[in-house]
């Protein structure tokens, strides 16, 4: 088995790697040197700008709620990156499944014993599989043999939501070695193999182009057309001013000057219209207009399907008021992710 490490450079500042990417690259280089494998870099800054960042800005400007992490996985990591490196030799799906299972068996055995993995640097040839550190699994459908995205063992680290729009073709040549492990096991394996800079690294929960001490709204504000407006209650009472609807999302709690602390943190929910005013109401007063983002990310809700009037598509009906228009959602049957998309 030949392994070659690749670092994706997706965002820069004045032609150079942004500080976050620069630190991550140094960690990747230390890891590659410790494991004695070569490390290359690929630059997808143009693709990221065109396919992820600009659509995100347009979505915010139009009052929607984008998810750049989903876009990055679909268009960059398992799009441009996969198209650049993967060997498209039309191998049978059963061959991909057999090879993936063989590799995963070896990874699982080494993970349990915590022995060092034997790695051989790549010399030449093509790339047959992309291996990433996402917490997810791949299971082949026994009938169609198509790869299915499956939730990981460690549900607290589940990233299948962010992978829900990745194509079957890309999943067929992908391996998620962390899918059968808990985060604590991964850190232990890293420490046992001398990768202390990995085992002691803090959690990364932000967006790659934003520094940890930087606010999302402040960063994207430089790219947005600001449309100041008013906070208005459901019955038309003006309660305050805001600097632009692009800084808010449906279901977000609002801070409004002069309102009570309880109202700020427990009862105010925003719902923007197509212009500049933001309407809001007390939680429970207008349930069809209110919602919480956590209902999509953390707490599964029931969904039913019906055919469209011309029977050309199936329409999902969410049985929960928290599933709001413009948000991204993923559909599951048990622990299998069926796909994802934006609520219309």
Helices and strands in order, then pairings?
Elements: E1 2-3, E2 5-9, E3 12-13, E4 16-17, H1 19-35, E5 39-43, H2 45-61, H3 68-85, H4 93-113, E6 120-121, E7 130-131, E8 137-140, E9 147-150, H5 168-172, E10 174-175, H6 183-192, H7 196-199, H8 216-221, E11 229-233, E12 238-242, H9 261-267, E13 268-272, E14 278-282, H10 294-297, E15 303-307, E16 314-318, E17 328-333, E18 336-342
Parallel strand pairs: 1-6, 2-5, 7-10, 11-14
Antiparallel strand pairs: 3-4, 8-9, 9-18, 11-12, 13-14, 15-16, 17-18
Give the fraction of residues assigned to helices.
25-40%
Rg estimate, integer Å: 23 Å
Approximate shape? globular
Strand content: 15-25%
> How many helices?
10
Structural class: alpha/beta
What's the story with the biggest beta sheet? Answer: 4 strands, antiparallel
Query: Low-confidence stretches at least 5 residues in length (pLDDT < 50)?
Result: 112-125, 261-269, 271-275, 281-297
Q: Roughly what is the average pLDDT, rounded to an integer?
A: 75
Ends distance? 45 Å
Looking across the biggest beta sheet, what order are the strands in?
Answer: 8-9-18-17
